């Protein structure tokens, strides 16, 4: 089996290292702040290393600091974006290196330079559609990795909600999840809060990693265009 080191994986590695560094720094700072021998309910002036300051009740500050989801809500969209960027690169490779005609990607611009056309296509096309195309062309399928189609759609749906500041599953999100699920897969209810604690974050990132590897390996093992 051929193996290609796509540049996206270097950025994935760096993002993961940054995430781990953030987790360690937050854990240390939580221990420090939670140990403050302060019982007063009066607001404190909190100053960051750059000299900026703000006034906040200690209880409110520690509540945010101890929230196990804040960090992952900030970082998670970056992982999805890396997978989308890989998708753009793979579409270019399929066309220019593997000889797949543009008509092999439903809706791909027929006239724009391929890099621009691929970017527009990945951005405008649901992942369940562009992902299916790239997987199929590379001889792969959704069942080749843990989580499959439902897992990928759920991850991207949660990214979209978080990126727009929506804290619960709305009807649009539920409709998309329903279309990507089998009858045996449980669905959240309308208005259920989005849970993105460490366990959920690791699960979703694992699905995205499996999806990316399946696509990349499938394309890498295709014969090059003559």
What's the short story on this structure?
The protein has 226 residues and is mainly α.
User: What sort of overall outline do the alpha carbons produce when their principal axes are compared?
Assistant: elongated
Assembly category: single chain
List the strand order in the largest sheet: 1-2
Radius of gyration: 21 Å
Number of H/I helices: 8
Succession of helices and strands: HEEHHHHHHH
Helix fraction by DSSP (H/I, runs of at least 4): 55-70%
Low-pLDDT sequence parts: none
- Name the average pLDDT: 94
Sheet with the most strands, sense and barrel status: 2 strands, antiparallel
Kindly, what is the distance between the CA atoms of the first and last residues, rounded to a whole number of angstroms?
20 Å
Strand content is under 5%
Structural class by SSE content: mainly alpha
Polypeptide structure, described:
- By secondary structure, the protein is mostly helical.
- Helices cover 59% and strands 4% of the residues.
- It has eight helices and two strands.
- Strands 1-2 form a two-stranded antiparallel ribbon.
- A hairpin with a 5-residue loop joins strand 1 and strand 2.
- Helix 3 (70-96) runs parallel beside helix 8 (198-220).
- The longest helix is centred in the N-terminal third of the chain and has 28 residues, at 7-34.
- The mean pLDDT is 94.
Summary keywords:
226 residues, mainly alpha, two-stranded antiparallel sheet, 8 helices, 59% helix, elongated
